[in-house]
Amino acid sequence: MREVQTKIVDRATIAGLRASARAGGKTFVFTNGCFDVLHAGHVDYLTFARRQGDMLVVGVNSDRSVRELKGPRRPVVPQSDRVRILAALECVDYVVVFDELHVDRLISELLPDILVKGGDRADWVCGREIVEEHGGRVVLAPVTVGRSTTSIIDNILRIHDAAKSG
């Protein structure tokens, strides 16, 4: 197994890895998200994504973009920790951080063979058109019911509030 640090790469490196994978006849799979407070649902999702091809690259929202998307109290876990945790997962081949609010620019740069998104996003998948226009496909992953970062954070806040009041 590769060291965690070697799995955390920049955008230029990912583009080169994608080219090498394609040249070797391998299927390049991409997914993305905030991955704040990693939980079993994330692990199920990433394991599913990895089974779709030969190399899984995970795009991770930067701290700045998470704050813009989720509000000033997020992320709970800083970007440096989120990427290290993701890179430590055996199913993840590489992790790359992106700072944009939407991932379509990174998808345009990488042109994955397969883009994986959660099944709860079936109505709108950022980058779908880009991937499909270049011969790739979008695969929707099953959602692990009852597992979400928001529900975990809400539960922590409920426990904290109950402890304070009682």
Would you write up a description of this structure?
- The chain is α/β, with parallel strands linked by helices.
- It has one domain: HUPs (Rossmann fold, 3-Layer(aba) Sandwich), CATH 3.40.50.
- 46% of the residues lie in helices and 17% in strands.
- It has eight helices and five strands.
- The chain has a five-stranded parallel beta sheet with strand order 3-2-1-4-5.
- It is globular, with a radius of gyration of 16 Å.
Topology:
Layout: H1 4-7, H2 11-23, E1 28-33, H3 40-50, E2 55-61, H4 63-70, H5 79-88, E3 94-98, H6 104-110, E4 114-118, H7 128-133, E5 137-141, H8 149-165
Parallel strand pairs: 1-2, 1-4, 2-3, 4-5
Summarize the structure.
The chain contains 8 helices and 5 strands; from the N terminus they run ααβαβααβαβαβα. The chain has helices spanning 4-7, 11-23, 40-50, 63-70, 79-88, 104-110, 128-133, 149-165; strands at residues 28-33, 55-61, 94-98, 114-118, 137-141. It has a 5-stranded parallel beta sheet.
